[in-house]
């Protein structure tokens, strides 16, 4: 039986503002090469036949090509210019997905996602239509109210990560609708069409590199392999 095609849309639209860095965060080096290269390598390690679509701002495409030449980075991937928002960027990436298959959407600055996590997400999406990686919160949580705030049971909450994997037909249908304010990730876009969301256990190592403190963690994780 032919294997279902697997795609990964890697969205890398960040700037360096919160990193206090001149470079966009996906191009900052960790362990000698740009963060985005580490991220792509994780998906290739999972499945060398995965079809990777990297979504970058139009003005960063030439910089990325130069970095690939500089680092002799030869893992095959398509590059697609992003949109004005994350919603628009994922939609542009989806245009490069042909036919049926399973489509993962992943943050370009989550370079330490474990291969086992990627595998579990694709397998769950094949079975249930969707798979969203998430972890339990470590800290206590308080909900803000008009009166102030009150404690809520953290066992009832999950912190959402990526990848978020969907059957291609489900994701396409979701991204045909107009963008709305409450769309914070792909799960919220898909859920608004009436689809249910299946959660898959993630890992606390699967950090999103956003601030300078995250870079310290990233270098430590990179040394561990």
Q: How would you describe what is shown here?
A:
The chain is α/β, with parallel strands linked by helices and 225 residues long. It has helices at residues 35-46, 61-70, 86-94, 115-128, 168-174, 186-191, 212-224; strands at residues 6-11, 29-30, 33-34, 51-56, 78-81, 102-107, 130-135, 141-145, 148-152, 159-167, 199-201. The strands form 3 sheets. It has a 7-stranded mixed beta sheet with strand order 5-4-1-6-10-7-11, sandwiched between helices. Strands 2-3 form a two-stranded antiparallel ribbon. Strand 4, helix 2 and strand 5 (78-81) form a beta-alpha-beta unit. The longest helix is centred in the middle third of the chain and has 14 residues, at 115-128. It is globular, with a radius of gyration of 18 Å.
Main sheet makeup: 7 strands, mixed
Mean pLDDT, to the nearest integer, reads 94
Alpha-carbon distance between the two ends: 35 Å
Query: How helix-rich are the residues, as a percent range?
Result: 25-40%
What structural class do you assign from the helix and strand content?
alpha/beta
Sheet-strand content, in percent, reads: 15-25%
Order of SSEs: EEEHEHEHEHEEEEHHEH
Task: Determine Rg (CA atoms, Å).
Answer: 18 Å
Low-confidence stretches: none
